[in-house]
Amino acid sequence: MRAFIRAAGLAVFAAAVAAGSAAAQAPAFRMAFVRTSVVFDSAPGRAEAATAFDREAATFQTQLQRMSDSLGTLIQEYRTAEASLTPAQQETRQRAIGARQQEYEARAEAIDQQVEQRRTALTRPLLEHIRSAIETIRAEDGYAVILSADPGSPIIAFDPSLDITPRVIARLRQLGPPRATAAAPAGPASTPSGVTRPRTP
Fold first, then answer.
1. Structural domain harbouring 145
2. From the centroid of its chain, how far is CA 160?
3. Is residue 116 one of the residues assigned to a domain?
4. Which of 91, 108, 161, 187 is the most buried (most CB within 10 A)?
């Protein structure tokens, strides 16, 4: 039994030595971590994109509020006059209210889609700019992989010296905002046009 244990121990030791020798011969595997949410919040152009989005979203919200107020007025008028209306008149009014309700719901759904499309349109250039900066740093320093260290990622802990977040932010500030973000239109898109990240750019 002891001989078996000893033999097994030697086998494990030999395997470890072989693995260490192979690692010594192979190129060094370098990795780094980046807090992408921090980078995104600090990226040049992010504040301008958020302002543009908020302005456009407010315009959409105003449209919805006006439709909601109009629908509410129609319902209130019906309730006030309902007792004095004939059954035929009541049915006519109810159909009108139903049609207005459907119109409101359809417009609300279309606006939701437009809001998401504008969020994506404003956010995508920032994300691509950040991804490009990270890839450039990865290539410069020879990292094999750069992982996200954001809350919710599968990474539990890592060496703080491997955190390249400040370097990515500095590189982005050096590059300036992406052109697409700087030139983002001020008004809402007239038709649906197609982030990641957060609910606001």
1. 2-182
2. 25
3. yes
4. 108
